[in-house]
Amino acid sequence: MASPSYDLNAVRALFPVVEQVAYLDHAATGTLSRPVREAMTAYLEARQTPAAWETYKGVIADLRAALARLIHASPEEIALVQNTTEGLNLVAHMLPLEPGDNVILCDVEFPSNVFPWKNLGRRGVEARIVPNEGGGLTVDLLERYANARTRAVTTSSVQFLTGFRTDLEAIGTWCREHGVYFVVDAIQSLGVIPLDVQATPVDFLACGGVKWLLGPAGQGFLYVRRELLERLPPPFAGPVSVGGERNSWLNYDLTFLPHAQRLELGTYNYAGIVGLLTAVRFLLETGVEAIEAWTHHLTEMLIEDLKRRGYRILSNREPRRRSAIVTFRPAGDPKAAWERLRTAGVVLSLREGYLRVSPHGYNTEDEILQVSAVLGNA
Fold first, then answer.
1. Looking at the DSSP assignment, which residues form a beta bridge with residue 183?
2. How many other CB atoms are there within 10 angstroms of residue 218's CB atom?
3. Which whole number is the average pLDDT over 1-18?
4. Dist CA 114 CA 129 (whole Å)
5. What is the residue-wise DSSP string for 254-293?
6. Angle subtended at Cα 347 by Cα 339 and Cα 289, rounded to the nearest 5 degrees
7. Distance (Å, rounded) from C-alpha 361 to C-alpha 12?
8. Which of 23, 100, 123, 239 is the most buried (most CB within 10 A)?
9. Radius of gyration, alpha carbons of the chain
10. pLDDT at residue 244, rounded to an integer
11. How many other CB atoms are there within 10 angstroms of residue 58's CB atom?
């Protein structure tokens, strides 16, 4: 039996879910570790005492720093948002798009990365949804469907249904060469696939903490490349997005802060911030590269077992397109197969008539092989 480069038993001891089920559904919702729950509980207890609550004021800067380290950005390029959808909506309204312009995306995007762009139709901006190639967006598709009015390209780093791993470097390079903004929905990769925004030409990146980051719902972040912060005015304004003197709330000086905090609006979700900070620190300490290697091993085991048993695999199996998501068509009724797995204590997703398996760094070989053991041959 293989093992990851970290202590798998020690990591598993942090996640109570392993005592109950084989949880293989991180593309839907990640699970909370004991340290995350304890950190959030400690904050809620401290919230009852003003003096204790004051000690948490620094966690906002701490989370920005941890997220910046995760993607190799600067803390000044990190804005805190509730979720991926909020981040993408901020970008959609920040970009200088005019009637007749178009934004390119493919036809297997999750709605979070579709509706913000379709909503721009009221301003005469086209959300140009193109057919996917192999399960996602490629440079070949951009060459085929872009024109002189293409102003932005938006894509998921990993597609939620197919598990297609987008070549962000290739698409980002194409966008830079054509003077096009590049927007990334990273919620299906961050935490299990490394990303360096200094090496990869990404302009904007939105990510919620609830999936692979193993954080609580309601807390995420938005990365904005430094050069764009002052060039593109914020679409909204609030008391924490502006500078000036803070000795009076009656000072209405609308001077936006020079960093990404200019995109934040009001009261912070401190419980969510504390939880996500704890989760991200765990990922950084464990090593995202090590987690990627282990989940690749687990999904490779699953793919080979499913192939041997005769199942049809939807996920692109080309090595450079692989992610921690494996999607396949079960034999017979998909819902019945999903329910059979749930009854057996194997948790995964039913999506568009397919079963989707998405393990994380604390899962084991035995857990991943339970999928086909329960279902049998196709």
1. 154, 204
2. 17
3. 96
4. 9
5. --B-SSGGGG--S---HHHHHHHHHHHHHHHHH-HHHHHH
6. 150
7. 9
8. 23
9. 21
10. 65
11. 9
Q: pLDDT for 135-169, tens place per residue?
A: 999 999 999 999 999 999 999 999 999 999 999 99
Locate 104 and state its tokens. 């390119």
Residues in the chain: 378
Structural domains of the chain ordered from first start = 8-31+287-375 (3.90.1150.10), 38-285 (3.40.640.10)
Spell out the long-range contacts of 297-303 with Cβ–Cβ below 8 A and sequence spacing 24 or more.
Answer: 297/2, 297/4, 298/359, 298/363, 298/365, 298/368, 299/323, 299/324, 299/325, 299/326, 299/357, 299/359, 299/368, 301/365, 301/368, 301/369, 302/326, 302/357, 302/368, 302/369, 302/371, 302/372
**Least confident segment among 51-55, 149-153, 334-338:** 51-55
CA neighbours closer than 13 Å in the CB half-sphere of residue 63: 30
Cβ neighbors of 248 (< 8 A, separation 6 or more) are none
Spatial separation of the C-alpha atoms in residues 366 and 368, rounded to whole Å? 6
Residue 230 C-alpha from the chain's centroid: 25
Are 264 and 256 a contacting pair, CB within 8 Å? no
Distances (CA, A) of 180 to 71, 232, 244, 284, 295: 22, 14, 34, 32, 34
Residue 28 near residue 359, CB atoms below 8 Å: no
Partners of 224 in beta bridges: 204
